[in-house]
Specification:
single chain, alpha/beta, eight-stranded parallel beta sheet, six-stranded mixed beta sheet, 23 helices, 16% strand
């Protein structure tokens, strides 16, 4: 009904029949529930929980000690050699995540990885998830590669180097791991890892900014099952990777537009679809694959386009016209200008107000770019970890000025542009208090302040992880602030983050409150829905599709599941052989 002190709430309390004062958190500080508006719970969890770690920076672990970073290529090679020796199956690929080509002085390639193993397939995912490096054994598994795909590298003799640079280039490699990682048991483990780490740092809502990036048919039922768990301490707002979904419609956008609209009607209080769609302009900031204007990169290399010029406009147009909310991965200054040009053309063709078009990451920019962002009514969701983790090591690649000015904040706030900060898990750990510290201090790894004019106040930083993040997600009518009519989502702290002199990174976190339910920091829970699924990748996925479909679709998936299980019996002779098989009709019972 209202928010205030006991004194200001007196008119309500005086007329109520019963008044209960809950003093559970009387000695704590309640702030609006922290929001990380750009994460990847599944893909980030795959990297952090299912892959071996070779990251340069320390990686927090929700279930144990922090994993120490590897500070040299030699240390990375030693770790990979240990993994190969420890692997039990001779032909099972070894996959590691976290390699930092910029911090460690250059890319890996097949020649270097062959020094570790020539017969065991080996793949190394970089820390941005945009690059993959493989050895010759892995190249043989990938098979013949088509020349002409940007980022798939070949030597002078036309032989692949084992380098797949950029999100388009790495698809042939990652497709080999899809069954291994999107099988429900593995996927739920990965998602729980990121969810628990986020919860322990006070986050109550995350934005999944690339749902369907591997396969929408596989990911949608996984997310529905995961976020239907009664004890999950998190909300998730999803943006659909529509370019990937269009592959299943032979490039047609109309069915995808309708699909995204239909998803809205299936939202729950924990898994929210509100018409968000995701696109890409240029490539990654972390691996320096983003597109830069003159003078470009100081070492002379070129960035990578994902959708350049009119191609980006053409891709976005049907979704813009349909009234959906567009989020664009946009990093370099050339990439941001490319995104601006596309938005300007969309507005020229079909003007919209309160469209909440959002630049995701907004790595390198200029004041002129920000002015145009304002003029076109766009928003910015900024990865604030860029200056802290990359500012100093990027000096030799971008120059001191551009490296230090990455992830502008104060100039955006001064222009009145709605601005949030995010982590892009697993690019950075989900720690909102650390994000606030970086936003207010802008210190590099040496402790030096980088671009001090772009620092913001603590209050502004708090808004960027609460109400402004909610606005970016289109959820500010429900979350992001403590006021009447909104959901009861709080982060419970041991100290006031707005108090001068309080070290933001040292503030203790009791836990969270989500929808009025308190979840202590070490909240224990399980994904119970996975227990009743059949064994095998395809049967378990189909069983989830049966569980989360209705009508004719459900009957079709049930029949497909019945047929697949019969085939598994016939060809695999698995542990279910000889047991009576349930009919398709039996699979439609409530317990299934």
């Amino acid at each position: 009904l209202s928010v205030g002190t006991e004194e200001t709430l007196a008119p309500y309390m005086d007329t109520a029949r019963t008044v209960v004062v809950d003093r559970t958190f009387a000695d704590k500080i309640l702030v609006p529930g922290f929001i990380d508006p750009h994460q990847h719970p599944l893909v980030g969890g795959i990297a952090m929980a299912l892959c071996s770690n070779v990251a340069f920076y320390d990686t927090p672990n929700p279930y144990g000690e922090t994993i120490k970073g590897l500070k040299s290529k030699h240390a990375v090679k030693e770790r990979l050699a240990e993994l190969v020796r420890a692997s039990e199956t001779a032909d099972e690929p070894v996959l590691a995540w976290g390699f930092d080509s910029v911090a460690l002085g250059g890319h890996l390639d097949a020649k270097l990885l062959d020094e570790i193993s020539t017969d065991r397939p080996l793949a190394v995912w970089d820390c941005s998830l945009h690059f993959v490096y493989v050895n010759q054994a892995m190249l043989r598994k990938v098979g013949k590669l088509k020349p002409g795909v940007p980022g798939i590298m070949f030597d002078e003799d036309g032989r692949p180097t084992g380098q797949f640079l950029g999100v388009r280039a790495l698809q042939p490699v990652m497709a080999l791991f899809r069954q291994r990682f999107v099988a429900p048991a593995s996927a739920f483990k990965a998602m729980k890892h990121v969810t628990d780490l986020s919860h322990q740092n006070g986050i109550t809502t995350v934005g999944e900014m690339m749902l369907g990036g591997m396969s929408m048919m596989l990911e949608e039922p996984l997310y529905r099952e995961f976020y239907s768990e009664p004890d999950v301490p998190m909300r998730c707002v999803c943006a659909v990777d529509v370019k990937k979904v269009q592959l299943s419609t032979f490039g047609r956008s109309a069915p995808v537009v309708q699909y995204v609209k239909d998803l809205v009607r299936t939202s729950t209080d924990r898994l929210i679809f509100n018409g968000k769609v995701k696109f890409f302009s240029d490539d990654a900031f972390v691996g320096l694959g983003m597109q830069m204007k003159q003078p470009g990169y100081l070492d002379g290399h070129s960035g990578i386009w994902i959708n350049e010029g009119p191609a980006l406009t053409k891709l976005m147009w049907p979704y813009w016209k349909a009234g959906l909310t567009l989020h664009v991965h946009s990093n370099g200054d050339a990439g941001n200008e490319n995104t601006l040009a596309a938005l300007a053309e969309l507005q020229r063709r079909h003007p919209r107000f309160d469209h909440r078009f959002t630049f995701e990451h907004y790595g390198v920019s200029t004041q002129a770019i920000s002015q145009r962002v304002k003029a076109l009514g766009a928003h910015c969701s900024v990865n604030i970890h860029y200056p802290h983790l990359r500012g100093e090591i990027n000096e030799r690649h971008l120059g001191t000025d551009r490296a230090h000015l990455a992830s502008r904040l104060r100039s955006l706030v001064d222009l009145g542009i709605p601005t949030a900060v995010h982590t892009d898990v697993p690019v950075a750990p989900p720690e909102p208090l650390s994000e606030m510290w970086i936003a207010t201090e802008r210190r590099g790894q040496s402790g030096k302040v980088l671009a001090p004019e772009e620092r913001v106040t603590r209050y502004q930083a708090l808004k960027m992880v609460t109400v402004d993040a909610a606005h970016i997600l289109g959820m500010d009518h429900l979350i992001g602030s403590i006021e009447a009519g909104k959901l009861a989502d709080f982060t419970v702290l041991d100290a006031d983050p707005l108090a001068p002199g309080e070290d933001l990174r040292s503030i203790g976190i009791w836990g969270t409150v989500v929808g009025g339910e308190a979840y202590p920091r070490q909240h224990e829970w399980a994904v119970t829905g996975a227990a009743g699924l059949p064994e095998g990748f395809l049967p378990s996925i189909l069983a989830l599709k049966v569980r989360w479909s209705s009508g004719l679709k459900r009957m079709c998936f049930a029949f497909a599941l019945y047929c697949v299980r019969r085939l598994y019996r016939f060809f695999k002779n698995d542990r279910d052989a000889g047991k009576p098989q349930r009919s398709a009709a039996a699979l439609l019972t409530p317990e299934n």
